[in-house]
Amino acid sequence: MPAEFSFLADRPAMRFAQRDEASRPLIPVAPDGLDAALAELPPAQAAFVKAQGFNAGVGQVALLPGADGVEGALLGLGAPAKQARDRFGLARAAGALPEGAWKLTGAWPAEMAEEAALGWLLAGYRFGRYAESAPPKARLVCPEGLDAARLEAIAEGEAFTRDLINTPASDMGPDELETAARLLAERHSATIKVVKGADLLAQNFPMIHAVGRASPRAPRLIELNWGGEGPALTLVGKGVCFDTGGLNLKPGASMGLMKKDMGGSATVLGLAHMIMATGAALRLRVLIPAVENSVGGDSFRPGDILTSRKGLTVEINNTDAEGRLVLADALAYADETPADLMICMATLTGAARVALGPDVPPFYTDDDGVAEALAKASRTVADPLWRMPFWEPYEAKIEPGIADLDNAPSGGMAGSITAALFLRRFVTETQRFVHFDIYGWQPAAAPARPKGGVGQGARAIFAALPEVLT
Q: What's the rounded Cα separation, in Å, for the pair 339 and 410?
């Protein structure tokens, strides 16, 4: 492991060049404007662009030679239909250009300029804890009219999330997740407290304790608070640092990515950084139930009935449906101090992936205004989301009869919806509540998103907060 690695480390490749720094022009060209662009170039440069096979595809780069080397470059915008299918496509330029500072020229729509600028920063992410990997050396001057510090805070929050998810469980258990939260709190002068081990029972967090008690790494509830004025926002993130499935042991193929089962906690921590780093005028509370779902003599069992913090009883029909159990206690605790908005984020169900695939996490809320704001923000900042229903007729599926709730309804259908309905039972009807069922993983490399851990929903939430917390 490189000695300099640490969470929230400064990453020069994920920062903008200074606006007064000497830079070379990066000239945007759409396919239907390519002939006109070539006509404006000196004949030798135009011939060189043609020789490179440049057709102005999304993120394609053509270098422009000069007397002292490369004096500029063309940047392909692609056709509108291609742009819509290629999120952060312009970020390809970051890895294709020579070292130095580059400046986008011309008039850019604000949304396109922001996506291009943020994508460039995100393209500089590398997870270098266990093997060196050099980021791109080309740096971008933040386009005029954009808030460079805000975009850097967003990129840094996303990098924090990715680092946490990418770190294997050998180095990212409940202890290490707590340490990461403490580092974040220290950086932003937030307060933090932790309820751990047997104290979970003494302070009435029985389901967090039950899920984590079989592991030698003690379960805990991490709580971070920041800000003294403004509306109250509570973020709750699932922190299952590794999920074996418990006594309902997962097959090996299903266990391979379970280091990412704390992706909800990683995402809310990254979002918390964005909020605190930009000095948002709100009161922030972050709750993370951090556990490892292990197999041992003290494992909770199929058929057990657990009594939650709220007093609702839960029949355990599958110990691999543990995330909703730890979240239930955390949500009940959060609900005891109502907020203007409560958000839950979790890598909760495979059903969500079957429905929407790895790129599009569903979210659930009864508040149409919040849903509309999130949907709008997701399109604006290229952070896809899709609203799914709290479908009332499915409530019966989570009521087993022997207890108030069933943690794993039989039948295998509507799994994401029934999990969302389960969580809603621990939040009062008057509380504005949103639940996100995220994946937290990029299966194959894409522009600005290397294969591995990835934040989902955080940027859309961050963009929507000014509207939903007015």
A: 34
Q: What pLDDT, on the 0 to 100 scale, is given for residue 20? A: 86
How much is the pLDDT for 1? Answer: 42
Angstrom distance (rounded) from CA 4 to CA 211: 35
User: In which element (H, E) is residue 24 found?
Assistant: strand 24-29
The Cα–Cα gap between 184 and 176 comes to 12
Mean pLDDT, the chain, as a whole number? 96
Q: C-alpha angle 212/218/219, rounded to 5°?
A: 45
Report how far residue 238's alpha carbon sits from residue 240's, in angstroms, rounded to the nearest whole number.
Answer: 6
In 3D space, the residue among 327, 316, 255 whose CA is nearest the CA of residue 288 turns out to be 327
Query: Largest Cα–Cα distance in the chain?
Result: 81
The CATH H-level (homologous superfamily) assignment of domain 151-468 is Zn peptidases (3.40.630.10)
Q: What distance in Å separates the CA atoms of residue 48 and residue 59, rounded to the nearest whole number?
A: 18
Type and span of the H or E element at 333:
helix 323-335
Closest CA to 245 of 414, 408, 455: 408
Domain 12-146: top CATH class: alpha beta
Q: Could you give the CA distance from residue 182 to residue 413 in angstroms, rounded to a whole number? A: 39
Cβ neighbors of 261 (< 8 A, separation 6 or more) are 238, 240, 241, 242, 243, 323, 347
Indicate the domain borders of the chain: 12-146, 151-468
Q: How many CB atoms lie within 10 A of CB 376?
A: 14
For 350-401, the pLDDT digits (tens) are: 999 999 999 999 999 999 999 999 999 999 999 999 999 999 999 999 999 9
pTM for this model (two decimals): 0.97
101-110, 236-245, 450-459: range with lowest mean pLDDT: 101-110
448 CB neighbour count, 10 Å cutoff? 26
What contacts 394, CB < 8 A, 6 or more positions away? 414, 417, 418, 421
Report pLDDT digits (tens) over 25-76. Answer: 999 999 999 999 999 999 999 999 999 999 999 999 999 999 889 999 999 9
Active-site residue list: 250, 324
pLDDT digits (tens, 9 = 90+) for 181-209: 999 999 999 999 999 999 999 999 999 99
